[in-house]
Design goal:
Elements lengths: L1 H5 L15 H29 L25 H15 L5 H26 L8 H22 L5 E3 L7 E3 L4 H19 L7 H18 L2 H7 L10 H19 L8 H19 L2 H7 L1 H20 L9 H7 L4 H21 L5
Antiparallel strand pairs: 1-2
Length: about 350
Amino acid sequence: MLYHLLYPLHEAFGVFHVFKYITFRAFGATLTAMLFTLLLGGKYIRWLKHKQIGQSIRNVGPQSHLSKKGTPTMGGGLILSAIAISTLLWADLKNHYVWVSLFVMLGTGLIGWVDDYRKVVQKNSKGLTARQKLVSQTLVAVAAAAFLYVMRDTPPVLKFPFFKDWSLDLGVFFIPFSAFVIVGASNAVNLTDGLDGLAVGPTITTALTFATLAYCAGNFVIAEYLQIPFVSGSGELAIFLASVGASCLGFLWFNAYPAEVFMGDVGALALGGALGVAAVITKNEFLLVLCGGIFVVEAVSVMLQVISFKTTGKRIFKMAPIHHHFELKGWPEPKVIVRFWIISIMLALATLATLKLR
C-alpha cells in the first residue's frame, strides 16, 4: 500500500525513490511486524485470559508440562495479523506471489483456528480430526499450486541444489508435488510446536534465510551470477518472509520459556504453509528440507514411531515428537529448545552456503 501511495511521488520528491527498492521495504516490513507484536502482545494475552482461552495439556505427555495448563493459546492470531498488515503495507500489491503466499498462510491459519476453537473454546478435546485437517490443508495447497501452474510465471520444474543444469520438468504433476510440499511443511512446523519457543526459533531462521533466497531468485543479475533459477517477481516475497521472521521474533518475547502464550495450531499450521509456498515459488523445495531440518526431523520422528509401534509393538523413542524424547532423557526444557535453535542456525548458514556451490 505504501509502495503504491508513496513511490509515485518520487518524481516530485526524490526521497520517495527508496520505495522502489525491495531491501528498503523489507526492512520497513520487519520493523512494522516486530513493533506490532511487541506493542500489542501484552494486550492480546490479557484478552485471551479474559476470554479464558487456555491451553489443555495431555496427561500422556511429560509431567513437567502439566504446570502449563491454562496458559493462553491461539497466540498465532497475533502473528498472522502482524504478517498480513506489514506485508500489505510494504509489498507491491500487484504481485500475485504476495497474494498466493497470504492465501496459503491465512487459509492454513483458518484451519488451525477452527481446530483450536473447538478444543479450547468449545472444550472438544478432539478438535478437527486428522482427516479433516489433511483434506482442508490439501484443498488450500492444491488451489495455490494450480494457480501458480496456470500463471506459468513459476517454472513447473524441480531444481536440484549443487547442480546448475539439473532439473526435472514436472508438467502437471507440479500441482500435487507443490501441494505435498506445502502440506508437509505446515504439519511439520505444527509437530515442532511442543515446547516454549521451540517452533518459533527455527521459523525465524528459515523465514529470513528464504527471504534472502527469494530476493536472489527475483533479481536477474544476482540469479545469473549465482546460477540459480530466476523467478521474475519472486523478490517481493522477501518482504512477506521478512514479516514472517520479524513477527515470530516479536512473538518470542512472550513465547520464550516460561511461555506467557502459545501460538496454537492457528499459528503453527500457517507458518509452515507460508514457508512451504515460498519454497515452491522460489524453486527451493530441497533447500527447505535442509534449512528446515528441525521440522523435518520432528515430523520423521513421529512417522518412525508410529510405523515401529504398529509393526513391531516397540517404540524407537521414549516419546515422539523427538523433543519429548530428549526431555524424558533428562534434558531440561530450555536446553532442548536452545540446542534445537543452534542446530537451526547452523542449517540456515549451510543453506546460504549452497548459493556458491553450483
